[in-house]
Amino acid sequence: MVRFLAALAVLAALFTTVQADELDEILKPIQVTERVWYFKGSLEGRTYENQAFTNNLAFVVTDEGVALIDSGPSSQVAERVARAVATVSDKPIRWVINSGSQDHRWLGNSYFAEQGAEIIALKRTAETQARFADQHMARLQGVLKERLEGTRPMPAPEPVDADRHAMTLGGVDFELIYAGDAHFPGDVLVWLPGEKTVFTSDVVYLDRMLGIHPWSDIRGWLEAFAALEALEPEYVIPGHGRASDLAQARADTGDYLRAIHDGVREGLENWEQLDQTVERLGEMPEFRHLTHYDEWHRMNINRVYLDLEANP
């Protein structure tokens, strides 16, 4: 009996170890084009097990090195990302491009900078990162615990003071495009015209309900989405969810933003109270397939109402 219980304890420990780390599955590179790959983050919220890797990261293999789009939520995750990239290419990671300001998009910056990578971001993005840094670290400390050790917030040291910025690495053209504040102020699109591929940051969510925060701007978000449509990309790598195409981006994000914006605007014009607007728009079955619909949809309506009421 003692041996049996001991064996059960060993099995339980092994099971816990396996369950405690989801990164092995998340960090399986998914190919989009000959040069472009991405990692699909968890669709769930931040947990110790998924190490707060709830977003997508992408990387581009060029003739002169790798360009990484976003750096992850911690230095420990960044190190794992680097190892996963190395399974595809033995070229060094030369650039880390920050597409946004949410924690999982840039808190791995310092790790890659220490390895010699250049951190690239628009000034708008870097300013928002600095503004939210303490809040992000405090929140992640409660989730990641010791897995946050070694993480040092580091916005791009020399951000680009422009709303569009073109650059080239190893024969691949990149363009950073700011078209409006979206999920966070300073969210940008990363456009690869030669690959007909756009990495959208949090301008696009697929498979998962997008979240509208008090600092989100639905009008700017719609403007950013319109800029995305104007690019006419063949491949869309969203901030969350599987890579797809422009039609799916419209279905899961563009159409939702427009439905919420127009529905709330109609309510305000008709002098509806907040609870009346939330109730009228509270069921949108065409978006129910999105993960977290039940948790986020009505809250999104609430926040858009308050925003548009205060800023008509």
Automatic annotation (TrEMBL):
UniProt keyword annotation of Signal present: yes
Species for this entry: Thioalkalivibrio sulfidiphilus (strain HL-EbGR7)
SUPFAM superfamilies: Metallo-hydrolase/oxidoreductase
Family: Belongs to the metallo-beta-lactamase superfamily. Class-B beta-lactamase family.
Keywords from the UniProt entry: Signal
Protein name as catalogued: Beta-lactamase domain protein
Signal peptide region: 1-20
Occurrences of domain Metallo-beta-lactamase (ranges): 54-240
The keyword Signal appears for this protein: yes
A biological process from GO: antibiotic catabolic process
Gene3D superfamilies given in the database record: Ribonuclease Z/Hydroxyacylglutathione hydrolase-like
